[in-house]
Amino acid sequence: MMSRHDTNELAFLGVPLEEEQFYRALLRDRDDAGEHQPAVVSRTLELGIVVRTPAGGLRPLSPQRAVERLIEHRVGQTQDDLQETARRTGLVDSLSTETHAPRATTYDNPAVRLIEGMEAVRAAIDEVTFFAHSENLTTNPFGVLTAESIEVSRPIDLRILRRGVRMRTLMASACLQDETTMAYLRELAARGAQIRVSTHPLDRMIICDRAVALTPIDPDNTARGALLTREPGLVSTVVSLFERMWAAAQELPEEDLPSLTETERQILKTLYLVDKDETGARQLNIALRTYRKHVARLMIRLDADNRFQAALHARERGWI
Fold it and tell me: What is the pTM of this model?
């Protein structure tokens, strides 16, 4: 009779049978997963369901987190494929010809459009970033992002980064004093975005692929609307301005290390290396109840759903 371990239950999430068997073997016995080809190991690492330990070993993500990671990966792949098909077929341009009441006013030069109203501007931003394939340049002259604006921006920003588009963002120095803004900027930086902070005045702009640029009609009142240009000479001028502002800015400051006690630091290390609280408490020679209290507090500080995720977050932030 065929064992469930011989069936490819993760196939619908893009995991081949050998990779699934390797992952299951690690779940059963993390110290001995048997002999597997390097390509199989490499694939599970690429899928993100297995990670390397500081000692060079291999550890599986928890089943819940692994499935979440695989679903995110497949959704991202599907979205990227659909975006590429839409771009290649000119679907948006085709549909745009059907509207008889556009919000954008076209000048004599069809490469320049006047976009009026914030709703239309947001739609234009979503459109141009949707089709970006190599680079996205933005500035924020105010420097502070509200929780609401972050929620609007996050899907767009993560979509750009997931597709491998280079993202460079310039922020006014007010961001340094706002915890919500800094947390989001560091989230983007951890995913590959390049972020700098400027103490000089910034001009508002969004540039995609050095082929299209959005600038406000009135820098003091961005709600009025924006100019969208694809005219190469104008875009080149805006890019040059961005590069000058970028060169004069400073790198995003590194996150200050938290004031961890030595016990907390050791506990974070054990979370990364051992499976059970009992083992960690025994290694540190502290009571199990005390160990678990420390773990609970650390999980809250790291915004982690489980112990293994807390260890990963701590390592990503340089806490251990």
Answer: 0.54
